[in-house]
Amino acid sequence: MKSFFVAATGQNVGKTTTCLGLVSGLKKRHKSVGFIKPVGQEHIETETGQHVDKDVLLFKSHFKLQDPYEEMSPVLFPRGFTRDYLDGRVDHRELIQKIAHSFEAIRKRNAVTVSEGTGHTGVGSIVDLNNAQVAAMLKTPVLLVASGGLGSSFDELTLNYIACEKYGAKVAGVILNRVLDDKREMILDYVPKALARWKVPLLGCIPYTPFLSTPTMSDFEILFQTKMLSGNENRLRHFQNIRLVAGSVEMYRSQILPNQLIITPAGREDIILATLTRVWDLKISHPDEDLELGLILTGKTPPKDSIIEHIRKSKMPMIYAPLSSFVAMKMINSYTSKFRKDDKLKIEEAVKVVEKHIDFERLEKAIQH
């Protein structure tokens, strides 16, 4: 009945990505693997009306885990929770008991239990339930996930290692994520030397995979707080490149590439029609092929109903965002997409990449000490 706690050195470092590969690899080595998110922030309502952390929904669905939702996601921080806690309206002992009971129940049923934290080790400190505190309370060793690098990555690891030390949580290993190919050999050589002062092993060096950071049209719905007006069946489409179109339609026609997200004002009907023409020309000549394009229409004036209807017939995913194309592009460039349980392509890619680059034998030895 082994267990460990996965925390990251910061937000959007790749903790959930890493956990997907860890759970997949462990399931191939053990008869049962449990998963728990002791403290959750972003939650989703299930079909039965339960509120659970979004990652719990993802892991339970993808890996067909048998433990109940209420144990896998024992504590949630809804909006206003922090203020309620500081005002004395939340019983801290009750939260601890709930986490401890859920963890123990899952641990007893499974050969290995993976606990996923929330952000870096300090997240949750304001309510006395940060990741280091929870890991120490559950007596589980910690795996720290950091961005692939040397100096800056070790600086971030140090801050989180010190937090774990303060609360008595043992750091059992480090996993580096998004490691660039041209730095891989250097990192594999020098990071273990840096970690030697803590007697902590490097358990994984996961390569940077651009596809795992690629948003879908469904992500853009959330980003722009809108709904798709067309192509709902292609809401999980990913794009190799994003193109802001503001120039001449003649130039645009010569540069329409497959798997491209096009951002243009809703008033540029010449651009929209040129896109549709290219889509239909391909459908006529090669019925089984698809350019796999997407549209984000911008501007204060929404697209005409007749234009929307033409786009719907092509089944091209399209949303309208009532802001400028420049602002839309800026928002997209700073946006980090999250995993969704129905985005099978991204989940499977994460599992394949991470699992291949984790030293599971070394991991098992590390969490036993």
Descriptive overview:
The chain is an alpha/beta fold. The protein folds into two domains: 2-212 and 341-368, P-loop containing nucleotide triphosphate hydrolases (Rossmann fold, 3-Layer(aba) Sandwich), CATH 3.40.50; 217-333, Udp-n-acetylmuramoylalanyl-d-glutamate--2,6- Diaminopimelate Ligase, Chain: A, domain 1 (3-Layer(aba) Sandwich). The chain is built from 15 helices and 15 strands. The radius of gyration is 23 Å and the shape is globular.
Mean pLDDT: 94
CATH superfamily of the largest domain: P-loop containing nucleotide triphosphate hydrolases
Q: Can you summarize the main beta sheet?
A: 6 strands, parallel
CATH class of the largest domain: Alpha Beta
Helical residues, percent: 40-55%
Number of domains: 2
- Ends apart, CA distance between termini: 14 Å
User: How much beta, percentage-wise?
Assistant: 15-25%
Q: What's the architecture of the largest domain in CATH terms? A: 3-Layer(aba) Sandwich
Query: What's the CATH topology name of the largest domain?
Result: Rossmann fold
Structural classification: alpha/beta
Q: Give helix and strand order, one letter per element, not per position.
A: EHEEEEHHEHHEHEHEHEHEEHEHEHEHHH
Taking all Cα atoms into account, the compactness measure Rg is: 23 Å
- Residue stretches low in confidence (pLDDT < 50, at least 5 long) are none
Number of strands: 15
Number of helices: 15
Instruction: Characterize the overall form.
Output: globular
Strand line-up across the major sheet: 2-7-1-8-9-10
